[in-house]
Amino acid sequence: MSEPTFAGRVSRWYEQNARDLPWREPDVTPWAILVSEVMLQQTPVVRVLPAWQAWLQRWPTPAALATESPAEAIRMWGRLGYPRRAVRLHECATAIVERHAGAVPDQLDQLLALPGIGTYTARAVAAFAYGQRHPVVDTNVRRVVCRAVAGEPDAGPATRPADLVATEELLPAEPAAAALASAAIMELGAVICTARAPRCTACPVETSCAWRASGQVAPPGPTRRPQRYAGTDRQVRGLLLGVLREATGPVPHQRLDQVWTDEVQRGRALRGLITDGLVEPVGEAAYRLIGDGPPAPVPG
DNA sequence: CACTCGTGGCC
DNA sequence: TGGCCAAGAGT
Question: b/e string for A67-89 if b means 16 or more Cβ within 10 A?
């Protein structure tokens, strides 16, 4: 036997220590995995868990979701954040029905062509739902590879082609083993090799970690300017959407006016929601979630 | 490439 | 208490 590889060690650790997450169960459908991946984009696992269960109970297939309105998808999304993802997921379901007869495609290029499915999610579905050999690179994986292999404190802000190449080189040749390794590296980054306070003493690759060997130098200052929230358009959009989500049907603009005093910012936020396909005007003085009722009369 | 886009919990 | 963060995508 040769020395265990990096992926081999992490995979072994994963098999014994992986969190018991429902979308990792054996009989989970590709659609359920796709939904989990979209929900997990920038939203913590603990908040996704109940939302994922409820979503799939209501819409077990893309066809089931495509039957309903985008407004219902936005409501079902609840407070997971970034509600554009709910609209995209609805568009995604529709596209799957139209282009792929209701079956989640298994080819990377077809997955990438779906609304709301980007570099990470397409690869995650191809690997975790279909067992294909693709590097699945999220922020956790980039951090792990950057530290353990390159010996650097942290990765850059966005996934680059070089990140995919570096990760691909770590994967075993056999597809199923590669998919397992991808999940394992991701899990390591989420649980052990965390951004803030890595638990190196519990790490399966501590002895071969380049960052550890180099003295574990701290990352340079804030690589990204802090994302403030209070007072931003984002907050105002959230407030407006909260009102529309709770309402059934059109909401008079007077009610929306109450969520934020600054009229300029309020108007900008509302226009943004419309531009993004989350909200639509109804007549001259009311708004509703997109598709929340019969089509608005066409002017003219 | 830099920027936008929610939300809630934690140290 | 408030900055910081959590399985990205689209423009």
Answer: eeebbbbbbbbeebbebbbbbbb
Query: Does residue A174 carry a catalytic annotation?
Result: no
By residue count, chain A amounts to 300
CA pair distance A222, A157, nearest whole angstrom? 11
Point out the catalytic residue in the list A37, A72, A187, A280: A37
CA of A99 to C1' of C2 (A): 47
Q: Return the pLDDT at A60.
A: 98
CATH number belonging to domain A233-289: 1.10.10
A30-128 topology per CATH: Endonuclease III; domain 1 (1.10.340)
Closest residue by Cα to the C1' atom of nucleotide B11?
Answer: A196
pLDDT band of residue A226 (cuts 50, 70, 90) is: low
User: CATH 1.10.340.30 region(s) of chain A?
Assistant: 30-128
Q: Which nucleotide is nearest to A239 (CA to C1')?
A: B6
| pLDDT value at A300 more than 50 | no
For tokens 């070089």, name the residue.
A162
Task: For chain A, give every residue range classified as CATH 1.10.10.
Answer: 233-289
CA A205 to C1' B8 (Å) is 33
pLDDT at A104 over 70: yes
